[in-house]
From TrEMBL:
Keyword terms of this UniProt record: Hydrolase, Metal-binding
InterPro entries the UniProt entry points to: HAD-like_hydrolase_sf, HAD-like_sf, HAD-SF_hydro_IA, HAD_sf
PANTHER family: GMP_IMP NUCLEOTIDASE YRFG, PHOSPHOGLYCOLATE PHOSPHATASE
Molecular function (Gene Ontology), one example: 5'-nucleotidase activity
Entry GO terms, CC: cytosol
Species, as recorded: Denitrificimonas caeni
Name of the protein this chain belongs to: GMP/IMP nucleotidase
EC number: 3.1.3.5
CDD domains with a match to the protein in the record: HAD_like
Lineage: Bacteria, Pseudomonadati, Pseudomonadota, Gammaproteobacteria, Pseudomonadales
Length: 223
């Protein structure tokens, strides 16, 4: 593990799903629960539902629609928000996420949640895990109309928040998002090695992997 130069970091930008929260909920919802619900509702087999839904989802990858509850509710004629509420018992923090945030706050770092999650999903998840007291700002890419994969997201974020990209740390489990942040000029980047606790490690490619969030603050000086 490569230690972070905390003396050069003022702002910590944090993804939600797969970074602070276990991605297991989202994987179960989108890859199993929702296709099965669609199959049952439309009187088709699960294989037929998968054959329709998987390429449809893939066609919107990296776009704001991919993350939009309203878009998929209309596209699939499903009550996506209610379905997420019905499965909310699967929503969990990643290991030590709360302790990690508490350490950042104690050290005086500016903690900003930057998520592609739709505000409806965000509300359901925050009601379950109660992270608001540990965060200074909560940003959904839907507030701007551009996902984190798009440079216009970072430009909009910079207009709203007073932060220096070169003195900021960004943690995410998505490689395209990390590359977008790197292109914008975010100075310190970490990739999440195991975003889904029930799945294996992912290839973080050119980015330094993070296993346990608490390890990242092992050398953080707290007054």
């Amino acid at each position: 593990m490569q230690l972070l130069p905390w003396e050069k970091i003022d702002t910590v930008l944090l993804d939600m799903d797969g970074t602070l929260l276990d991605l297991h909920f989202d994987n179960v919802f989108w890859l199993d629960y929702m296709p099965q619900y669609y199959a049952d509702k439309n009187g088709i087999t699960r294989a037929e539902a998968d054959a329709y839904i998987k390429p449809l989802l893939a066609s919107y990858t990296g776009q704001i629609h991919w993350y939009c509850v309203d878009f998929w509710s209309g596209k699939l004629d499903l009550p996506i928000k209610q379905m997420k509420q019905d499965t909310a018992e699967l929503i969990r923090l990643r290991a030590n996420a709360d302790k990690f945030l508490a350490a950042l706050r104690a050290a005086g770092k500016h903690c900003v949640l930057v998520t592609n999650a739709h505000r409806d999903s965000l509300q359901i998840k925050l009601e379950k895990v109660h992270l608001e007291p540990l965060l200074d700002v909560i940003i959904s890419s839907h507030d701007y109309g551009y996902p984190k994969e798009d440079q216009r997201f970072w430009q909009s974020l910079r207009q709203e928040l007073d932060f220096q990209p070169e003195r900021s740390l960004f943690i995410d489990d998505s490689l395209p998002v990390l590359r977008s942040a790197q292109h914008y000029g975010i100075g310190h980047l970490r990739a999440v090695l195991q975003p889904d606790s029930q799945a294996g490690h992912k290839n973080c490619e050119e980015f330094i992997p993070s296993t346990d969030l608490l390890d990242l603050v092992s050398n953080l000086q707290i007054p």
